[in-house]
Amino acid sequence: MAAALLALGAVSEVLLRADGDVPLPLALSLALGTTVPVAVLAGGDPVTRQPFAPTRSPRGLSAAAAVVVGAAGMLSLAPFHVLTGAGLCALLVSLHQAGRRGLKYLTALLALPFIAYAVTTPAGSGVGERFLTVLTAVGAAVAAGTGLARSARDTALVNSAAEQAIADTLLEHAARGERARIARELHDVVAHHISMIAVQAETARLTTPGLPAVGAERFLAIGDTARTALTEMRRLLGVLREDAGGSAPDRRPQPGLEQLGELVDEARDASAAAVRLIVEGPVRPLDPGLELTAYRIVQEALTNTRRHAPGAAVDVELRYTRDALRLRVRDNGPSPHTAKGLDAGHGLVGMRERAAMVGGELRAGPARRGGFLIEATFPAPVREHAS
């Protein structure tokens, strides 16, 4: 519709301005050549139905249409001087649309002749001719520039969306992998306790003197239930051991806070830097899952420090309170590993997954006096034992 209206306007203007200097068939051909090809470039998006949006026509067809409009417009301006107002509008639309389609070099080449003609037009030309020449040159430059800028912006938005989607996918895979590792480790912790329940129930049934038959049956039922639960848990979670890549599973007991001293010593030896372990408050045994979580967070924090701030001194602080365990890991490095940078990786993802698993909270970011700080708080109320 836009192309038809422009063509109708151009033909009408040519007929009204016909003065015999230019053969009418040639003038009409140039008028149609500057307007009709716009149908390919400005037909609107058939999906979004937005007018003058980039269509899904082939790039070759769009380039050919832009060349026809540009050539007809240049011939209409010089040497025949029959460029119409509709033709000028069509020319600007074609240059803008060619730029939006990413035809960078072609758009520049099509706009350049109009700018060169405006610069080289003799000063003695008529005022009307001079005005039309300058207007066409400025309009061509602006239309081409805005089209190219729009194309660059659209490309940047698409690339940004793709990068964000990839980053979200990577973080999701990292979170799933960390959850799988957490499940494997908890499998070991819970399996140990369930096994102890089964063993103690069987031992009590066999070694308690004078145990009534009903009590023996109940101990036997406890042992059977524990063994059934252990079998079902291994069936559901044991397969998670295989997602590490076929390596042999580690049969060592899962570490806890008692092994933090060894972890700190290893970090000190590996980085040749000062690594301190500071413990405040009365030390008491905590839930094995919570201790394993705290250990893994410290382990990951020390690894991040060696990777992002090699040689920096690190303080690992454990504070036991009546209701919680508070953990702080702080280094004094130049802190190139900002919170944004770490979020882009997988370190903090695993830490937060682990902290949330035991009902805790984790915060990470640059410390006030330099370096990087990781703080975690875990609910660990003191258990009251009946006397």
List keywords for this structure.
single chain, 387 residues, alpha+beta, Heat Shock Protein 90, 3 domains, 5-stranded mixed beta sheet, 9% strand, EC 2.7.13.3, ATP-binding
Topology overview:
Layout: H1 2-17, H2 24-35, H3 38-41, H4 59-77, H5 85-100, H6 104-120, H7 127-207, H8 213-237, H9 260-271, E1 275-280, H10 288-308, E2 314-320, E3 324-331, H11 339-344, H12 347-357, E4 361-366, E5 372-379
Helix pairs in contact: 1-2, 1-5, 2-4, 2-5, 4-5, 4-6, 5-6, 5-7, 6-7, 7-8, 7-12, 9-10, 10-12
Question: Can you tell me about this structure?
Answer:
It is built from twelve helices and five strands. It is α+β, with helices and mostly antiparallel strands. The chain folds into three domains: 2-163; 168-244; 257-379, Heat Shock Protein 90. It has a five-stranded mixed beta sheet, covered by helices on one side. Helix 2 (24-35) runs antiparallel to helix 4, helix 2 runs parallel beside helix 5 (85-100) and helix 5 runs antiparallel to helix 6 (104-120). Its EC number is 2.7.13.3. InterPro entries: HATPase_C_sf, HATPase_dom, Sensor_HK_TwoCompSys, Sig_transdc_His_kin_sub3_dim/P. It holds the Pfam family HATPase_c.
